[in-house]
Amino acid sequence: MSGCCDHDDIDKADLQIKSFRRALWAVLLINGVMFVMEFSSAFFAGSVSLQADALDFLGDTVTYAITLLAMGYSLQTRARVALFKGLSLGVLGLWVYGQALYYILTDQIPSYEIMGLMGVIAFFANLGSALLLYRYRVGDSNMQSVWLCSRNDAIGNLAIIVAASGVFATGSAWPDFAVATVMATLAVTASLRIIRLSLREMRAEVHEHP
Predict the structure, then answer these.
(1) What single-letter DSSP state applies at residue 171?
(2) Is there a domain that residue 46 lies in?
(3) What pTM value is reported for the model?
């Protein structure tokens, strides 16, 4: 009887992995397309928050591809992939801080029309990604990192829409800088969470299989 239960557990795990893989392929495609669209628009808009969001789409595309390659491997391997993603997310956050400072010094005012339009498009793209990945938000560090990336991106897109409205209302670039700072903080916070969880899983795997 216990053997049947074990077999059922294995089947359920396999089905979850296959389901997660399909969702991840869909999200990878969404992010790749959005990177091309937003990266080209960011330069026309002169917006640091759009540039940051576009690079975030690129980073997500790359890390989702790495996640797909790591699936089926040991927890140790998956935790190492999650650690890489966490570190990459932290670097992105620090880069956004630097870009915001650069745009403050150069005093560039972004195009609120392009910011608003791309913010809306990117929001629905990330909302769709987050919904696809919602059921995997309580998995291992690898699954959680994917969910956190999509969730943070959707929040960031809403902030970009608010920033576009702020630029329109004030004629100033400060709303764009403020949103870029919020996005950087979200990235760094998620980065620390993913790094802590992945390191915990790596230590647990080592203790279990010395």
Answers:
(1) S
(2) yes
(3) 0.70
Domain count, the chain: 1
In a domain, 15, yes or no: no
118 Cβ partners below 8 Å, 6+ apart? 37, 38, 41, 42, 45, 50, 160
Residue 9 forms part of a structural domain? no
Please report how the helices 174-208 and 48-70 are oriented relative to each other, as an axis angle in degrees rounded to 10. Answer: 20
d(CA 81, CA 192): 14
Predicted confidence (pLDDT) per residue in 138-177, tens digit: 666 666 666 777 777 787 788 889 999 999 999 888 899 8
Q: Is residue 2 part of a domain?
A: no
Q: Which residues lie below 8 Å from residue 94, measured CB to CB, with a gap of 6+?
A: 184, 188
